[in-house]
Amino acid sequence: MLSGLGLPQLAALLLAGVLLDLLLGEPRRWHPLVGFGRLAQWLEGRLNHGRSRFPRGLLAWILAVLPLTALAWLAAHHAGLWLHAVLLYACIGLRSLREHTLPIVDALRAGDLETARVRTSWIVSRDTADAQEAELAKAGAESLLENGNDAVFGTLFWFLVAGGAGAVLFRLANTLDAMWGYRNERFDLFGRTAARIDDALNYVPARLTALSYVLLAGSARARAWQCWRSQAPAWSSPNAGPVMASGAGALGVSLGGAAVYDGRLEQRPPLGTGPAATSGDIARAWRLVLHTTLLWLGVVGAGAAFFLLWGHYA
């Protein structure tokens, strides 16, 4: 382990960080990722201009991510094991996914389209002002499936690799991709570094997430696997494709397809198979993310128990 921690220690700290997130949720004030977002905006405003946008984007990424990751490593190294769990809590977003998506379910079930549109606009980049129930349900389910990887499982993976500093590195890199990784005139060159680094850091976690969705699909495992293998290659994102295709297959719903971005209708490749998503599928997607979290905790815990027993009897 790059963190220098043993698997039993990492397992205990992983559980502690997840429990802190479930018990406390996001900080209501002084959220570290909000502060980081402001830093990223400041750097982008000062460096994203001129002809040399690509090297300036690389410089901005280095200035935004590496000092804070190094600071997290030094702090955890000197403050004690407990800080690893606190850093994981600051980076993971399991409870946040629930708090941002289940109110959409409540609004749709109450027939309150306006509230559902506003709440959905908080979690997706597509236009929702005129979206109908099926479009909002689809957007909510897609966001949950994809962000299960970005906000939870990728963070857990890199925590296991490098402790609290690994979680910080991944979450900051993923945040910069969400802010800068757009293929438009403003960000195509400047944000290319952020997009490519996030693709690299997410490659293994995304496939472990997709595999987890398949394993938890029950009788629909073959369908989830087939959706992953046949539909994911059509998506431009090398990591979102496997995650959302396997998740849609596990849920047995049709996602992807038409969506409006910046006033333009885009036809995206299909995801999954079956009926169009409904409000209940947002709740089902949340349960899939929660059960995947429990699966990962169980696997890591079992590995730690085996390590301790093997060491005891060796």
UniProtKB/TrEMBL annotation:
Principal subcellular localization: membrane
Q: Which InterPro entries did the record assign?
A: Cobalamin_biosynth_CobD/CbiB
Q: Which UniProt keywords apply?
A: Cell membrane, Cobalamin biosynthesis, Membrane, Transmembrane, Transmembrane helix
Q: Does the keyword Transmembrane apply?
A: yes
Q: In which pathway does it act?
A: Cofactor biosynthesis; adenosylcobalamin biosynthesis
Free-text function comment from the UniProt entry: Converts cobyric acid to cobinamide by the addition of aminopropanol on the F carboxylic group.
Question: What's the name of the protein?
Answer: Cobalamin biosynthesis protein CobD
